[in-house]
Write a structure and sequence with these properties.
- By secondary structure, the chain is of the alpha/beta class.
- It has a single domain, classed as NAD(P)-binding Rossmann-like Domain (Rossmann fold, 3-Layer(aba) Sandwich).
- It has 7 helices and 9 strands.
- The longest helix has 21 residues.
C-alpha cells in the first residue's frame, strides 16, 4: 500500500487528542498534518506537521498532493461558543467546508463526528445543527464519507461539561441494561470513537456511511483487536 497523508482538524479536542497519536502510529500514513488555529503539543510526534490557519479561509489553504484521508473532530457548545450562530460556525460550517476542501484535494476518505439523533428537521438546535452538517458533508463529494453518531461521550476533557458529567453517571448505572436496540444509547469512550474513525478510514468503502453509536463501539473494538495483532 502506498503511504499517504492524513489531515486532522480538531486535534486538541476530546476525540481528536486521542486520534492524533493513533494516526501518527499508523503504518497507513507517512505524514499527519494538523490544521489548527494555534500551535498544538503534537508536533513532537513523529510524522506530524502543523499548519496554523484561519478557518474562515479554509478553501484557500494549500496542501501538497497525496492527501488520503481527512478527519474532522471539531465540536463545541452554545455556552462556550457564546451564541447559536457561533456554535453553528464550528459544529456545522467548519465540517462542511472541510469536506469540500477534502474533495477539492482529491482525498479518498472523509471521517467526521456527528451525534446520536442528528436531524436537520429537529426542534433541538444541537441536533438540527448536526443534521445540517451531515447533509452538507454528504453532498461534498468525497469518495468515501463516514459520519459517526456516538451517544454521550465519556473520557477526559480539557473543559468541564455538567450535562455530560450527570449523563455519564446515570448511564454508568443503566448502561449494562441497554441491550438490543437500546445498545446505541450507551455512553461511548472518546478513545473508542477515535479508534472507530481510524478503522473507518482503513476500510474506506465508497459511498456515504452513517455509523450509529453501537456500530461505533464495534468498530472501535475491532480497531483495538487489529492493533494488538499487528
Amino acid at each position: 500500500m502506498t503511504k499517504r497523508t492524513a489531515v486532522i482538524v480538531g486535534a486538541t479536542g476530546a476525540v481528536g487528542s486521542k486520534l492524533t497519536p493513533l494516526l501518527a502510529a499508523s503504518q497507513q500514513y507517512a505524514k499527519v498534518i494538523i490544521l489548527h488555529r494555534r500551535p498544538t503539543p503534537f508536533t513532537k510526534l513523529a510524522k506530524v506537521e502543523e499548519r496554523v490557519i484561519d478557518f474562515g479561509a479554509l478553501a484557500a489553504i494549500p496542501v501538497e498532493a497525496g492527501v488520503e484521508a481527512v478527519f474532522c473532530c471539531v465540536g463545541t457548545t452554545q455556552k462556550k461558543a457564546g451564541s447559536t450562530q457561533a456554535f453553528q460556525r464550528v459544529d456545522r460550517d467548519i465540517p462542511v467546508a472541510l469536506a469540500r476542501w477534502a474533495a477539492a484535494h482529491k482525498a479518498g476518505t472523509f471521517v467526521t463526528i456527528s451525534s446520536l439523533g442528528a436531524d436537520p428537521d429537529s426542534g433541538s438546535v444541537y441536533l438540527k445543527t448536526k443534521g445540517e452538517m451531515e447533509k452538507g458533508v454528504a453532498a461534498a463529494g468525497v469518495r468515501a464519507t463516514y459520519i459517526l453518531r456516538p451517544s454521550l461521550l465519556k473520557g477526559e476533557r480539557s473543559e468541564f461539561r455538567l450535562a455530560e458529567r450527570v449523563g455519564n453517571r446515570a448511564l454508568a448505572i443503566v448502561g449494562p441494561l441497554m441491550i438490543g436496540p437500546l445498545r446505541k444509547y450507551r455512553a461511548v469512550r472518546t478513545q473508542t470513537v477515535a479508534r472507530a474513525m481510524l478503522e473507518c478510514a482503513q476500510r474506506s468503502q465508497p459511498g456515504v456511511h452513517i455509523v450509529e453509536s453501537d456500530a461505533v463501539q464495534d468498530l472501535g473494538a475491532a480497531s483495538t483487536v487489529a492493533g494488538q495483532r499487528s
